[in-house]
Design a protein that fits this description.
It is built from 7 helices and no strands. Helix 1 runs antiparallel to helix 2, helix 1 packs parallel to helix 3 and helix 2 runs antiparallel to helix 3.
């Protein structure tokens, strides 16, 4: 030990080194998590594309069930960055009292954490962009058309729906029937009210009966 190292007791020195080594182990685990999440992003991007076109081809929803995967991925990237910040605070609590060995090891871990934080910050931005791409696929018109229930179709005869000549003839026949009914009702009304017309009809009927005999 040097003279500066003598300013710390052996117990304090061992405690400081143990604290730095613990942070180094935690950072190693986070580096492994970083590599795992980084490789997972490409798989998730491929999963979005495959699920979207699979939904379009098979007329079924394969995109919405995987929605939690992307929110979880974005959350994991953000938490990894926060955990690195906690490790920086842990290094700040390590007391060196001017000890060069402790200061050098602590500086190495601080640089290691800051470099990893830069990478994780970029990865978190990519995770946010991936979530936005997933939501944009959900808003596509071709995908939204799959979620809309099909309206019941009412079959109508083609002749009635699309033949204007037939429609015109039907209206004309309807008007002629109404006109004949009006004439019949008016004639009956005249016969019932006029005694002359009643007697005339009686004479015609009697003459027909006589001719038949």
């Amino acid at each position: 030990m040097s003279q500066e190292e003598g300013q710390l007791t052996k117990e304090e020195y061992d405690r400081a080194i143990a604290g730095i080594n613990k942070v180094a182990d935690n950072v190693s685990k986070m580096e492994w998590n970083y590599e795992r999440l980084k490789s997972k992003r490409e798989k998730l991007l491929l999963e979005i594309v495959v699920s979207y076109w699979k939904s379009i081809a098979l007329k079924d929803d394969f995109l919405y069930p995987i929605r939690l995967t992307f929110s979880t991925y974005e959350y994991d990237c953000g938490m990894l960055n926060e955990n690195l910040t906690k490790e920086l605070l842990s290094l700040d609590s390590v007391i060196s009292n001017g000890n060069d060995d402790i200061r050098m090891k602590r500086k190495e871990q601080v640089k290691r954490i800051l470099d990893l934080q830069d990478k994780i910050t970029q990865m978190h931005k990519d995770a946010v962009a991936l979530s936005m791409f997933y939501r944009s696929c959900l808003k596509q018109g071709r995908y939204q058309a799959l979620l809309q229930p099909e309206a019941p179709t009412i079959e109508t005869p083609a002749a009635i729906s699309w033949n204007p000549l037939l429609l015109r003839c039907q209206r004309r026949n309807r008007r002629s029937r109404l006109w004949r009914m009006c004439l019949l009702r008016s004639s009956r009304h005249c016969i019932e009210r006029s005694p002359f017309i009643q007697s005339l009809f009686y004479l015609l009927r009697s003459s027909r009966l006589a001719a038949a005999r």
